[in-house]
């Protein structure tokens, strides 16, 4: 599949299996989502540019590599995307966080927007949109269009589980956006839930329902 990178690191896969298990309760679910997000942040940032600066160790002066100051932004899609933010910020503490509130109407399956607050300089930032689930792709497409309309040009999308239908839909509308997932599952069911998936990510994270 084009534009989708599956992160098959054993730690990510192991923790994802625990997350999928219906017997995993809210507290553990939240901790695991944070841990997997941190591991995914590590993989997603693999190509960040470096520059050399001069530093002094206790022994001598030397050249050393540091991040080349690229500005980053994390954009969770509320609610469930919130569960991924802390894991990303653990590794990228200087990143700014923008929030986009969307819920999927259970009848029409169309995303409904209810909140948006983004960093003012998003056009200068590399933006990482995060949401545990990419199902039909409606929410991801809407969030990406939203930030593109406000000037963003450099966007990645990171999820825990993607459905092939969602990957295809995002790729068709936003071919410039790479998708990073811990797994691409089999399909969507009649209610557009991912099979086998993990159920409703927002409800499992926040203990609702
Ligand atoms: O690809 P899609 O078909 O759009 O479905 C995926 C969306 O559904 C879930 O959110 P939900 O609507 O359940 O909102 P919530 O995070 O507030 O629970 C999930 O977190 C995604 O945002
Ligand atoms: O399987 C799914 C699909 C959409 N949203 C979820 O939380 N889970
Ligand atoms: Mg939900």
TrEMBL record:
GO terms for biological process: UMP salvage; uracil salvage. CDD domains: PRTases_typeI. Binds 1 Mg(2+) ion per subunit. The magnesium is bound as Mg-PRPP. It catalyses: UMP + diphosphate = 5-phospho-alpha-D-ribose 1-diphosphate + uracil. Keywords: Allosteric enzyme, Glycosyltransferase, GTP-binding, Magnesium, Nucleotide-binding, Transferase. It comes from the Bacteria. InterPro entries: PRTase-like, PRTase_dom, Upp_B, UPRT, UPRTase/APRTase. Catalyzes the conversion of uracil and 5-phospho-alpha-D-ribose 1-diphosphate (PRPP) to UMP and diphosphate. Belongs to the UPRTase family. This is Uracil phosphoribosyltransferase. It comes from Caminicella sporogenes DSM 14501.
